[in-house]
Amino acid sequence: MIDRRSWLKGAAATGAGLTLFPNGASAARRLSPSDRVNIAVIGAGGMGAANMERLTSQNIVALADPDFSHVAKAFVDGKGQPIQSRLALKTAYDRAAKYADYRRMFDTHRDIDAVLIATPDQHHAVAAKMAMERGLHVYVQKPLTYTVREGRVLNDLARRNPKLVTQMGNQGHSGDDGRRVVEWLRGGAIGDVREVHVWTNRPIWPQGVARPAAIPAPAGFDWDVWMGPSTAGWGYNPLYAHFNWRGWQPFGCGALGDMGAHLIDFPVWALETGLPTRIETRHSPWGPSDRAEDTPPGDGRGSYPLATMTYFEFADAKGGPVRLVWYDGGLMPPSPHGLPPGTVMNPDGGVLYIGSDGLLMHDTYGQKPVLMGAGAAERAAAIPQSLPRIAGGIDGHEMNWVRAIRGEEAISSPFADAVPLTETMLLGIVAMRAATPIEYDGAAGRITNNQQANRYLDRTYRKGWEL
Length: 467
What we know:
Residues 213-267 form the Gfo/Idh/MocA-like oxidoreductase bacterial type C-terminal domain. The chain is α/β, with parallel strands linked by helices. The protein has helices spanning 4-14, 46-52, 68-72, 87-95, 102-108, 124-133, 148-160, 176-186, 223-227, 254-263, 265-270, 376-381, 397-405, 415-434, and strands at residues 38-42, 59-64, 97-99, 114-117, 137-140, 166-168, 193-200, 278-283, 308-314, 322-327, 349-355, 358-363, 370-372, 438-441, 446-447. The protein has two domains: 4-172, NAD(P)-binding Rossmann-like Domain (Rossmann fold, 3-Layer(aba) Sandwich); 173-387 and 415-457, Dihydrodipicolinate Reductase, domain 2 (2-Layer Sandwich), CATH 3.30.360.10. α6 (124-133) packs parallel to α7 (148-160) and α10 (254-263) packs antiparallel against α14 (415-434). The chain is globular, with a radius of gyration of 22 Å.
């Protein structure tokens, strides 16, 4: 493998006009609105294909995935018939260079401007940091990182390289409805908000279950690359890959990591909460295990609990203290006083804000907001638009990244916003692993009442996959 110094030397020699960032990374190619962006995708099937389907107007130059038989399934329906809407994507994928290991792609491919990362969570920060150190713009699926420290590393790298365009894949942040929710809350449509309830129907994959025995990985599936930075040392089983990995601690961040970026986003954004100061998680049992090898660094857990409730306290929120409660696994908040008769909370997920002068409720991604309470609708109607709208709304989140790279539009969900949101979500998992309430000093990035719990803010990396 080419080391970083050799790569930079080669880039300087072959990339005419490239400059170097202060940290030694090569600067991204300057693009005009008429240019097409050269994009590589890491994790090209599943969500990666869904993201890239909206980017076929650009040049898809490289793919990195340990299982291209899985990638191929993104182009056919349940009956094995071609998906007509993805024919352009399939053509672009067929033309792109292909790598099992993204480290090899970064070492050898020279015409990349930007990288979209849609891997399991354990890879997100490692892949993003590699890309950013090479001067490449990045779009990273949610949750942005697997640990708190990883988020701070990426945010620091983004701050030191402001020309890099960064985006997290929480597309609701680009939606018109969600932005109107933020304007209503900040404008006082329901008065002061001190209490928020957030819920989701996730997990929709196995959780709270025992780990299965390992079986041989399918032919062509590079399981070692799929494991990446994880030190768990588990063998392959389809109960982990490709979708079910979210429920297993060595690979994913459970329901909170999956949907928090789509739901917690809006109260954190609108109420300017800052980082939480106290967090406690209650939950059903962890997945049972009697296997000695089920001991990744930390608390030795395997499968996340089936259902959790996490209590976040934001003592330093801009408008005064806020308490937010997260529910998953089918749990729902109680019906508040003032909820009109017949009003149903969407069991698929939503957010309920309890204000001094009314209620506001919306679905996942900030969609379908409803105001409740005397005068709330009238007050909301008088609140002017103050946030810019993103072309295409939710469906334009990926192209917003491209347009921002070309200097046409401000980025929607940069790491400066995505990192604190992700940190908030991950602290719920830290509190679950700590099995105790935690008090958090956001400025220092430290848990102050349980020193042992600080180990859950970081992780150990497998050799060759270090951050």
